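**User:** My hope is that you can spare some time for a protein that puzzles me. I have put the entry right below:
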Amino acid sequence: MTTNESESANVNAVEKGPGSGSPQPTYRWLKDGIPVADYSSSQFYRIHNTKREDAGSYQCIARNEAGSIFSEKSEVVVAYMGTFENQNEGHLTVVSGHPAIFDMPAIDSVPKPSVSWQAENRTLNYDIKYALTQANQLIVLSADKQDVQAYRAHAMNTQLGREEASALIYLNVTGDPFVEVAPEIIVPPQDLKLKRGEGVAELQCIANARPLHELETIWLKDGLPVENAGILHTLNNPWNRTLALLQANSSHAGEYTCQVRLRSGGFQTVTANAHVYILEPPMFFTPMRAETFGDFGGQVMLPCDVVGDPTPQVQWFRNAERIEAQLLSGGYSVKADNTLIIKKLTLEDEGMFQCLATNEAGEKSAYTWLRVKTATTEAAAVPQPRVKRLAQPRILRVRASHAGMGSGPRSGSGSGSSLGSGSGSGSGTGSGSGMGMNAKHPGKGNKRKEFRFGMGIKNAKPLTAHIHYSTHCTSN
């Protein structure tokens, strides 16, 4: 979600579909893992007169007597724009036939600005002479006397609708205007890491030579012409400088080569290579059970069957707190396949166990409610109330206007609680002092009162608003 400084917007993040918690949950919001408000019945969090320091990662915590569930993270970006840092005119001198490379002057802008270049006070023609790099550089290819003039960059912050113009940079060209120049790759393609399904990704190969109109650029994938490689792609300009990869999948992985030569010959072909890697976000191929029962004093194994590319890093949590202390004490251990082993189950081990898997492509979590079976609990078993599954909050709509994690309750003996399981993307990486989910333990001879509260986790998608925002995290 993107907002603007000193303005206002309301963003409602509501659950996906019907859901409920019993008792009614209370809500808390965190920014970068730190609570920004206390638990309350209000499902909104509002920021007035948004400032840059309000940017960050926000999460909603929903809590009732069964415990706490945390939502996926939602990134909030505060849009702003400064001016070009250097307001002094510049000068650039190049040899005739060689490229003139104009670096983009520094400017502070969030999000990154859209950049265009002008010569004097006119827009540059769409021409073989000019190339704009992914770093917003302007390259005047095969520069000659006709290119001697002043150039400037225009930066537009599309979120704010604000534009800034840089100081002029004057170009001077020297040397023989008739000497041929051998082909040279000025901007080679760069390695890419793409998430599976990513819409469009570009490889750029910008070359220079004289005569420029004789220059030819050819793309290969794994040694084959790209048009014969069986991948979705397109070439974005008549000079083949940009290869766009569409709807990334495993077929796009491999080595890409751009070959540059003069059609008329006379010089060697030059090449540059780049590798494309396809990343797979974590995915659970075996769902966790809604509830896991273990015998008092026995051993329990909780699987975390997750795959991804690269191999996900796995962390285990109990009641939203990392289990480092139990691992250090030897009471818990984690196998090479990420299965958590509780060696000797006690009542204190009861609670929500969550497996969080993370790699470069994203993160995903799954959880189960671990319950301890004893003679007392079996004798005191009572029918459990039916509770609907509570979906994760997510951003649904944006409208302009002018307008954490705490420990769950721990009470005395005599009752118990249970929590539904689910899986989805989201983060539980808060510290141990963060979100706690503490279950009540049964007292001897007392009946257990059952509570259930579940929240499925869905992939977060950032939205755009015109600032000052409020987030809505509800249960029906």
